[in-house]
Specification:
Distance between the termini: 68 Å
CATH class of the largest domain: Mainly Beta
Radius of gyration: 22 Å
CATH topology of the largest domain: Umud Fragment, subunit A
Helix content: 25-40%
Number of strands: 10
Oligomer: single chain
Number of helices: 7
Shape: elongated
Number of domains: 2
Strand order of the largest sheet: 8-7-6-5-9
Structural class: alpha+beta
CATH architecture of the largest domain: Ribbon
Order of helices and strands: HHHHHEHEHEEEEEEEE
């Protein structure tokens, strides 16, 4: 007996429509409108050609290509517009938003601005995480109060991160910023501090099981 799955077919059709040249063109126009830019202003950079861009907004010649989406996203970021390539290309993921203040203004505290930047980073990288440094284990490179962010690795892929400073989450759920090494005795993970005068009670932890590890990709210092 043949069983039809209309829901799956509908989902596939919707996905195709969302990634069509016309749908991409509409989202591109939406982003430019959010930035309050003319096409000429949008293309006042060597990365975007006005004639090519005009074709993308009109869905001509196949519309916006995947390899150009990142250039558009970077251009919009200069106008405080946060968007992801996934949303622009496929209509999936986080919807775009406008940062509530200019980075150069005094409308928000330094910490507010950092958290806003982290929000933007996480929007662009859905598999990312962040943490605030809470001890002096890695001082002076990373001090208490600093914020760090990075892309998460899980499972066996975490072994590629040995000898790197990472955000790590232990099986208990505790999140730390530590120098990640291999525990030669068990093959698991060893979490180390690098500050010889650290006040951390347990400067080195052995045989640690982790949920994930994220190499530091962004550092945000309040002072």
């Amino acid at each position: 007996m043949t069983v039809n799955h209309p829901t799956t077919l509908s989902d596939d059709t919707e996905s195709t429509e969302l990634s069509s040249p016309n749908a991409r063109a509409e989202r591109l126009r939406t982003l430019r409108s959010m930035a309050n830019l003319t096409r000429e202003e949008m293309c006042n950079t060597d990365d975007l050609n006005i004639n090519t861009y005009r074709g993308w907004e009109r869905a001509r010649y196949g519309g916006l290509p995947n390899n150009a989406a990142e250039r558009v996203i970077h251009r919009l970021a200069k106008e405080n517009i946060v968007a992801s390539t996934e949303w622009l290309i496929d209509g999936t993921g986080h919807k775009p938003f406008v940062l509530p203040w200019d980075k150069g203004t005094d409308e928000a505290t330094p910490e507010d601005k950092i958290l806003s930047e982290i929000s933007a980073y996480r929007c662009l990288h859905p598999n990312s995480t962040y943490a605030q440094v809470t001890d002096d284990g890695l001082s002076p490179a990373f001090n208490p109060g600093d914020y760090v962010a990075g892309i998460k690795y899980t499972g066996d892929s975490m072994r590629m991160l040995f000898d790197k400073i990472c955000i790590v989450q232990k099986k208990s759920g505790e999140t730390l910023v530590r120098f990640l090494r291999e525990d030669k005795n068990t093959g698991r993970f060893m979490l180390c501090t690098t500050n010889p005068t650290t006040t951390v009670d347990q400067p080195t932890e052995y045989d640690v099981k982790l949920n994930f590890a994220a190499p530091i990709g962004r550092v945000y210092k309040i002072s």
